[in-house]
Design brief:
The chain is mostly beta strands. Helix content is 7%, strand content 46%. GO terms for molecular function: biotin binding.
Length: 175
């Protein structure tokens, strides 16, 4: 009995200790990237499919930016509840389509972050111009909470003289 008591005490401390449950990363909600683009991902169904809206802050066209529909799929969550996903944005204001792929993470501070890579395909007039029709890039999205605005701040990453090696961080505040 003497040896069992310390074991049971330790077990109960582990089971009821707050903060030991891992936070899940959930795609549903409002997100903003380092360029100021916003997206809303609506409910993810049982098959992992979702839809939503994307409002880009940047464009290479002269057309007025419009909110554009997105359609995607989430892989079932892994053991850490940090799912992989992909979605397509069919731009409402240009002859282009962008596909994003990425993973939903919970960082060390407990914040949800979407790390993505994308391909943007623009329409070109002929096959000779195909070489310039596809662009590639990355974006990091942070969750926007209700009534919250975030501003991205650019900073140096420590590599002197290299503008391409900068990082972005977001400062969020409640309105």
């Amino acid at each position: 009995m003497v040896q069992v008591t310390p074991f049971l005490l330790m077990l109960s401390m582990v089971l009821v200790a707050p903060g030991h449950s891992a936070k899940k990363c959930v795609l549903t909600g409002r997100w903003m990237n380092e360029l100021g683009s916003n997206m809303t991902i609506l409910a993810v169904n049982g098959k992992g499919e979702f839809s939503g809206f994307y409002h880009t802050a940047v464009t290479a066209t002269m057309n007025e930016i419009q909110v554009s529909p997105l359609q995607g799929s989430q892989h079932r969550t892994n053991q850490k509840s940090q799912p992989t996903f992909g979605f397509t944005v069919n731009w409402s204001f240009s002859d282009s389509v962008t596909v994003f792929t990425g993973q939903c993470f919970v960082d060390d501070e407990g914040n949800e972050v979407l790390k993505t890579m994308w391909l943007l395909r623009s329409q070109v007039d002929d096959i000779k111009n195909d070489w310039k029709a596809t662009r590639v890039g990355t974006n990091v999205f942070i969750r926007l909470h209700s009534q919250q605005e975030c501003k991205w701040q650019k900073g140096a990453s420590g590599s002197a003289g290299s503008a391409s090696h900068s990082f972005c961080s977001a400062t969020c505040f409640t309105q």
